[in-house]
Design brief:
single chain; mainly beta; two-stranded antiparallel sheet; 8-stranded antiparallel beta barrel; 1 helix
């Protein structure tokens, strides 16, 4: 499955959600929340100020959160995708964010805004550094996160979740097995898409 296919899945899910916007259901997202699903990520980057490239991949995400009586949900999410390019690499992202859900809890369809911070880690696989045998190179970046999405409640405890997030940042301190390696700075903006399910597993 390509990143474009994942994006199309979320687009289709959003269209279906809009078509059901008038559905009535008690959507009261309070207390403990767990979720999982597909994750796609596109990374646009430039290496030491040179020409930019855009690459993408597909993986999975897991999340847990807590909903308050007001329309606010705080959550933590882990995503991992495999990006295949000249040098294959994995991209991990940990998000800590808050969501503001629009419309009333009588609506099955509820769009939201998301703001928070993102910790991204890139692990390049089988890269050659200064004629050394293939090894791995890892770097991390922490920055702001912004996003939009939709909840489509199937019942009061189960929701289909689709969203898009954007997180910019720079990767400059690279290491291999704990030792620094001479890899230049990569400025990267990641656009993440996801489609999954969330469940509210405790009664009020």
């Amino acid at each position: 499955m390509t990143f474009r296919a994942a994006f199309m899945m979320i687009t289709c899910a959003s269209v279906c959600a809009f078509s059901a916007a008038d559905a009535q259901i008690k959507s009261d997202p309070t207390r403990l929340i767990i979720g999982a699903g597909l994750a796609g990520m596109s990374i646009s980057s430039d290496f030491d100020g040179q020409a930019s490239t855009t690459e993408g991949g597909v993986g999975f995400h897991l999340e847990a959160g807590w909903g308050f009586r007001r329309p606010i949900v705080v959550s933590g999410r882990f995503s991992r995708v495999l990006i295949e390019s000249d040098v294959n690499y994995t991209a991990d992202q940990i998000d800590l964010s808050a969501r503001y859900l629009f419309l009333s809890n009588a609506q099955a369809f509820r769009p939201y805004l998301e703001l928070g911070i993102a910790r991204r880690t890139i692990n390049q696989l089988n890269v050659i550094i200064e004629d050394v045998q293939p090894t791995s190179a890892t770097s991390s970046s922490t920055g702001v996160l912004g996003g939009i999405g939709v909840h489509m409640f199937v019942n009061p405890r189960l929701v289909l979740d689709g969203g898009i997030t954007v997180a910019p940042g720079s990767f400059s301190d690279w290491s291999s097995f704990g030792q620094p390696v001479p890899v230049g700075t990569i400025n990267a903006v990641s656009v993440g898409v996801r489609l999954g399910v969330r469940a509210w597993i405790l009664d009020r």
